[in-house]
Amino acid sequence: MSERPFQHPTLHESLRSAADRGEALGDVIESIAQACREIAGRVRRARLQDILGDAGSRNVHGEDQQKLDALSNELLLDHLARCPAVGVCASEEEEEAVVVRARGDGGEFCVAYDPLDGSSNIDVAVNVGTIFSVLPNDLDPASPLQRGERQLAAGYVVYGSSVLMVLSLGDGVDLYVLDPDLNEFVRVEERLRMPDRKRVYSLNEAYRDDFPEGYRNYLDYAHANGYSSRYIGSMVGDVHRTLLKGGVFLYPPTSAAPSGKLRLLYEGNPMSLLIEQAGGTADTGSGRILEVEPGELHQRTPVVLGSREEVAHVLERL
Ligand code: AHM
Ligand code: MG
Question: What gap in Å lies between CA 215 and CA 185, rounded to an integer?
């Protein structure tokens, strides 16, 4: 057992010291963290426990579900449903939002999540992650269809060479690492600030000919100006690198997917809150992602997010 360095408070301790933002919100984050610890264990052992590969089913988007997608979804729903402050759960893997508790019974929050983002990368041991967004449950009827600027908290967990959680309660962004000896997330950095510039773009360039002209012009600009390209194909990994090192991450519209691929409620919005809270910009190409009024649960949005100056170079060409 390692001794916990004094300067690294656990997630529990740091949530309690931020209790002015509500103890119940802290309980929701701790439920998510518990589910993510279990998901991390399953991801690590997937090959050994024969839980790699297709589940033989398709999700609401018509995509092949991986066994780990289904398992991660169950773990999150299970933990969140047992948290007394959770009212509504909305998952990438579920067609409809699930009401687990009425507001009158204490269900103060809606939680939207992508249980295992980038799951097509699991078989090759590339980073995958969980993305989550917490909203007030104050609409009648109860609904997570709210603008991202109403989020009370957002974060993601990366299952990579180490397991990390990046979390915002709406006032700054903190970085936690899962200490494998303690099996606890401990805070290793507070109030992350992302660089304002970095000559790196991150997008699937194979779709270039299908992007609107402005994006193609941006790529010409980047090529002419000594940019590097970095693309994992796992949003959590690509956004995490962008947050720490700077650059711009894009998933533009294509002719086949006119709103891009990424989903607003559990991919675009939580990542946008984190990026903005770290001093960056997150845009659809025609406005702030956090101001989009959602019309449906699995709505997609184009995404341009990252360092302030790098995003500006994209937007000025659209
Ligand atoms: P998923 O939620 O089904 O895993 O899909 C989302 C993933 C993102 O992690 C990633 O940014 C994107 O799909 C990659 O898409 P593409 O293969 O079209 O580049
Ligand atoms: Mg996803």
Answer: 39
CA distances from 45 to 7, 38, 40, 122, 193 (A): 31, 11, 9, 11, 34
User: Over 80: is that where the pLDDT of 206 sits?
Assistant: yes
Sorted by where each starts, the structural domains of the chain and their CATH numbers stand as 5-189 (3.30.540.10), 200-315 (3.40.190.80)
* Dist. CA 135 → ligand 2 center (Å): 19
Higher pLDDT, 49 or 109: 109
Please indicate, yes or no, whether the overall pTM of this predicted structure exceeds 0.90.
yes
| Per-position DSSP letters for 140-189, written without gaps between them | SS------GGG-SEEEEEEESSSEEEEEESSS--EEEEEETTTTEEEEEE
The protein residue with its alpha carbon nearest to ligand 1, atom 11, reads 235
- C-beta of residue 143 within 8 angstroms of C-beta of residue 19: no
Output DSSP code: residue 4: P
Mutate to test the pocket of ligand 1, among 211, 261, 267, 300 (most ligand atoms within 8 A of CB): 261
Confidence (pLDDT) at 54? 72
**Distant-in-sequence, close-in-space partners of 172: CB < 8 Å, separation ≥ 6:** 190, 191, 192, 277
